[in-house]
């Protein structure tokens, strides 16, 4: 009976909705479980679109979380760094590093800077349970960003 109860508890918790800071302290695995997230857009503290994050009006940047490390791809440069969760369950990206490539497309270079600025610091986050999943980040100053999960197609 005890073993059955343990299996049921373990199975039930594995199928439970993804935790967010409003529900329970979240762990980095909730972000890394998806793999890669593609930026869909961002707004400033006044709710106005931050055009620089979408060079030529098109989503280019993706972020991958992996056990405390993050990688950003899609622009002119490759960026990466570390992330943690603070006591309030906020995502904290304290420092990003970047290659220093020069691109002919200035919009891509500007987007790299805008995306890095969007991620640095502490932000509340939540994952909307949809398919694909959607990640929403909100900074204390009111900036917001919207990301959509990029899942690999199932193997044949």
TrEMBL record:
It holds the Pfam family META. Residues 36-144 form the DUF306 domain. It comes from the Bacteria. Residues 1-22 form the signal peptide. Keywords: Signal. Coiled coil: none annotated. PANTHER family: DUF306 DOMAIN-CONTAINING PROTEIN (PTHR35535:SF2), HEAT SHOCK PROTEIN HSLJ (PTHR35535). This is META domain-containing protein. It comes from Cognatiluteimonas sedimenti. The lineage of its organism: Bacteria, Pseudomonadati, Pseudomonadota, Gammaproteobacteria, Lysobacterales.
């Amino acid at each position: 009976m005890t073993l059955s109860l343990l299996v049921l508890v373990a199975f039930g918790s594995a199928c439970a909705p993804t935790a967010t800071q409003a529900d329970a302290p979240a762990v980095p695995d909730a972000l890394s479980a998806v793999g890669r997230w593609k930026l869909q857009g961002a707004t400033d503290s006044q709710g106005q679109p931050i055009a620089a994050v979408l060079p030529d009006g098109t989503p280019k940047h993706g972020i991958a979380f992996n056990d405390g490390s993050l990688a950003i791809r899609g622009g002119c440069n490759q960026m990466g760094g570390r992330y943690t969760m603070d006591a309030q369950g906020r995502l904290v990206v304290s420092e990003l590093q970047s290659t220093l490539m020069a691109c002919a497309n200035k919009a891509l270079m500007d987007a790299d800077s805008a995306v890095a600025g969007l991620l640095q610091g502490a932000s509340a986050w939540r994952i909307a349970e949809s398919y694909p999943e959607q990640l929403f980040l909100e900074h204390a100053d009111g900036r917001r960003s919207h990301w959509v999960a990029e899942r690999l197609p199932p193997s044949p």
